[in-house]
């Protein structure tokens, strides 16, 4: 028997039944995405659900957690103009030989049948939007109002959701389909079926309108775009060029008419239900503009390092480049909330109806339905420099980075700096999105079957550092490329010059007080030079670039065929609260690979490897990836940097 089709009150009853029925809980497991190859690029949103415990998963939680997947993740595909042509291709002229006639239809005759043309008419403009799955028809009218994705669901109205489920496999779970079945209203008419299913129609790729990206970026996934700049270019400039700023997208890039950017509307909903709306032009003209220099860093930055050194992790295998620094310009969130009429309880407040900043949250939602939240107390402190940004490095926000409006929450994981910002809600609970409740969290090294509710969402980031460039003196660097090996230092010198560059940062506005460098795997240490870069803001929100000039001890010659004796260059940073990085990834290992901030180690061998030779897959591009036992970069101008090395050594001696 087919599932019972929906009638008034049916969904509420079934929701309670499903919520009470014991069933395993699940954790999201983003599949590891391979490096670019001849195979189609996999999406980071291609998720699977793995059993984690025997606790129940209420259907209401599914609406909040999987809600971003069941419809909003997979429903931006819009039927192209004229897609309704031929929906009833055989209505008046016979039908395809593979199409069953009504007499051949063995499905439950008591369930209504609908033509595809009728289904298509129930699009986003219809008061009762429908979708189809396989040969079934669903009325999602009630779902729209209950779904956290809001109007995004309507982008699938009048169409089949099957092609999207083939991409976003999180939906292929029994309990998800059980909930969908509560909306069943009928079957697709037999005339419109081919081999028992509706025919494949042209489907508009939701990523087709994504902006072009710089070819220098290393792309982990193309749809959605997740890419990082090449290591050697990462810290060339204090402010990362917009085109090289790392890309972290969970879905498609929303399309906003360039001629109507100033008409983009942000709604602010207060705890009492009052809603205020602001256009982008309102924000620019009615509020004081502020500049903040702040780094944004993905929680998965250096995840590949943790995977290689401590064990398999789930998620995009970022190198050291899921971090970038920019000067943002916009209006303070606290000013907008005050203008909207938000009143909060003070330390001695007698009015208990006012929201308490220590227990309330600011929920942030983007145009593509991505959602996150930060504590209200964070937003209300002007010294935290939380802004609604419309400019990046002196230019209007690029589309990939949130145009026309994004939140920038300095010192916090970048997942809280919601792009394409369209809605703010002041609530007594965190955002109900899966990204807030079931993603950006960390657990103990031994935890595999995790209770997601037991861990707090990541907010402020820990102290970290990384090496972005190593230049070894036995090579000559010409035109920013590695040259051929040349003879070593002059006889009697006994050592080889080395130059190292990188970045360090800490969350919460804490500044970097020291960067320690070791050239022998951590046996001995020296301090790097911290570069003085100007920045705007109340606290230390930007990264701290550093460099180190020194000498490698000479290595004994090796016989032909033997491996050269390599060394390990190590860096670790300490902030002004004396937080420092852990020595190993094994001590902080977690299945999601988040917050991989152990000492950063790079193996340097007494030989040169051209950058192109170090690229996985042999693409020939001049990019460098971490490779154990291989040289990382090589060569520099002896006259320019060698003199600085000698001067620095002489100063230390004196």
TrEMBL record:
Ranges of compositional bias, category Basic and acidic residues: 82-96
GO cellular component, one term: mitochondrial intermembrane space
Cytochrome b5 heme-binding domain boundaries: 111-189
Record-linked InterPro entries: Cyt_B5-like_heme/steroid-bd, Cyt_B5-like_heme/steroid_sf, Ig_E-set, MoCF_OxRdtse_dimer, Mopterin_OxRdtase_euk, OxRdtase_Mopterin-bd_dom, OxRdtase_Mopterin-bd_sf
Sequence segments annotated as region (Disordered): 82-111
Predominant subcellular localization, coarse grouping: mitochondrion
Biological pathway: Energy metabolism; sulfur metabolism
EC number(s) from the headed UniProt entry: 1.7.1.3, 1.8.3.1
Record keyword Nucleotide-binding present: no
Pfam families in alphabetical order: Cyt-b5, Mo-co_dimer, Oxidored_molyb
Subcellular location: Mitochondrion intermembrane space
Any single GO BP term: sulfur compound metabolic process
GO molecular function, one term: molybdenum ion binding
Catalytic activity line of the entry: nitrite + NADP(+) + H2O = nitrate + NADPH + H(+)
Keywords recorded for this protein, A-Z: Heme, Iron, Metal-binding, Mitochondrion, Molybdenum, Oxidoreductase
Cofactor(s) required, per the database record: heme b; Mo-molybdopterin
Protein name: Nitrate reductase [NADPH]
Organism: Phomopsis amygdali
């Amino acid at each position: 028997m087919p599932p019972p089709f929906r009638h008034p009150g049916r969904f509420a009853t079934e929701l309670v039944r499903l919520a009470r029925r014991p069933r395993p809980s699940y954790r999201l497991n983003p599949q590891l995405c391979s490096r670019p190859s001849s195979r189609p690029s996999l999406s980071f949103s291609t998720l699977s659900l793995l059993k984690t415990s025997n606790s129940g998963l209420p259907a209401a939680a599914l609406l909040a957690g999987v809600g971003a997947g069941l419809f909003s993740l997979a429903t931006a595909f819009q039927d192209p103009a004229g897609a309704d042509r031929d929906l009833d291709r055989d209505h008046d002229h016979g039908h395809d030989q593979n199409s069953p006639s009504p007499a051949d239809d063995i499905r439950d005759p008591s369930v209504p049948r609908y033509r595809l043309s009728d289904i298509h008419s129930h699009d986003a403009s219809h008061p009762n939007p429908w979708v189809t799955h396989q040969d079934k028809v669903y009325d999602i009218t009630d779902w729209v109002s209950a779904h956290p994705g809001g109007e995004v669901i309507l982008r699938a109205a009048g169409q089949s959701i099957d092609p999207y489920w083939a991409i976003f496999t999180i939906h292929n779970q029994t309990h998800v389909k059980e909930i969908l079945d509560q909306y069943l209203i009928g079957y697709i008419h037999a005339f419109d079926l081919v081999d028992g299913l509706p025919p494949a129609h042209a489907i508009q790729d939701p990523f087709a309108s994504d902006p072009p990206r710089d070819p220098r970026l290393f792309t982990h996934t193309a749809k959605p775009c997740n890419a990082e700049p090449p290591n050697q270019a990462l810290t060339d400039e204090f402010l990362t060029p917009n085109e090289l700023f790392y890309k972290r997208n969970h879905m498609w890039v929303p399309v906003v008419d360039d001629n109507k950017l100033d008409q983009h509307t942000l709604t602010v909903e207060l705890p009492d239900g009052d809603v205020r709306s602001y256009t982008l032009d309102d924000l620019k003209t009615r509020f004081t503009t502020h500049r903040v220099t702040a780094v944004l860093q993905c929680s998965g930055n250096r995840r590949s390092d943790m995977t290689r050194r401590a064990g398999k992790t789930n998620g995009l295998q970022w190198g050291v480049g899921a971090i970038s620094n920019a000067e943002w310009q916009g209006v303070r969130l606290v000013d907008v909330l005050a203008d909207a009429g938000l009143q909060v309880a003070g330390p001695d407040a007698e009015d208990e109806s006012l929201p308490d900043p220590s227990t309330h949250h600011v929920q942030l939602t983007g145009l593509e339905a991505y959602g996150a939240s930060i504590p209200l107390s964070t937003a209300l402190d002007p010294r935290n420099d939380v802004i609604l940004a419309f400019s990046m490095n002196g230019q209007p926000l690029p589309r990939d980075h949130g145009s026309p409006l994004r939140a920038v929450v300095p010192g916090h994981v970048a997942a809280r700096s919601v792009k394409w910002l369209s809605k703010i809600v002041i609530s007594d609970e965190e955002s109900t999105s899966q990204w807030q409740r079931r993603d950006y969290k960390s657990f103990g090294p031994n935890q595999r079957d995790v209770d997601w509710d037991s861990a707090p969402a990541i907010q402020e980031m820990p102290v970290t550092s990384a090496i972005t460039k190593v230049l070894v003196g036995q090579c000559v660097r010409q035109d920013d490329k590695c040259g051929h090996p040349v003879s070593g230092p002059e006889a009697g010198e006994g050592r080889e010059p080395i130059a190292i560059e990188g970045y360090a940062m800490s969350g919460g506005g804490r500044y970097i007080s020291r960067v320690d460098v070791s050239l022998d795997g951590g046996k001995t240490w020296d301090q790097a030079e911290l570069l003085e870069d100007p920045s705007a803001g109340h606290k230390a929100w930007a990264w701290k670039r550093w460099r180190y000039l020194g000498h490698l001890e000479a290595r004994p010659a090796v016989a032909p065929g033997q491996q050269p004796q390599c060394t390990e260059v190590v860096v670790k940073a300490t902030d002004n609260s004396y937080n420092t990085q852990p020595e190993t990834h094994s001590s902080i290992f977690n299945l999601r690979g988040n917050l991989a901030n152990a000492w950063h180690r790079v193996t340097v061998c007494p030989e040169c490897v051209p950058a192109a030779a170090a690229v996985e897959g042999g693409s020939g591009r001049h990019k460098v990836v971490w490779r154990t036992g291989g040289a990382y970069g090589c060569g520099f101008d002896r006259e320019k940097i060698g003199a600085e090395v000698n001067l620095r050594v002489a100063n230390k001696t004196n």
